[in-house]
Model the fold of this input.
Amino acid sequence: MFIWKTCDYDTILYEMAVMNSNPEFVKLSEDKSFLTKEDILAEHEEEIEKERYLILENENPAAIADFIMCNPRDKNPWLGLFILHKNYQKKGYAVQIYQHYEDLMKLRNVAEVHLGCFAANAVGLEFWAKRGFAVYEERDYRGKLLMVMKKKL
Done:
């Protein structure tokens, strides 16, 4: 069973563990080999209002999910980060955790969710397509191609 814990300064080391267990993604998204405490703190200090959760399984960090309910650009809900610790990948947990997010959005009467996935993240693109997301725009994000996707709930 997964527990969703609101991220705060006490979760920084757990968040680092999740992120740094995925060096390929960190390199793709941040152009770094690993993230530091300061990098994670910077995520917490972004001006955009978001909900950020550390997802735990038996007190072990399994994933991070963050989202905003109203993107300033288009006023839509966006899933900003969805990443599993390497130890929890390829076991069906991503589907379970994502389903919890989707159920939460339905409880909040959300009709459609959006996300961005790097074009170079083939595993991510396949995962989102299997969940019913479709690409509707391609965008440059920090010099990388981002596939902008949405799904009707």
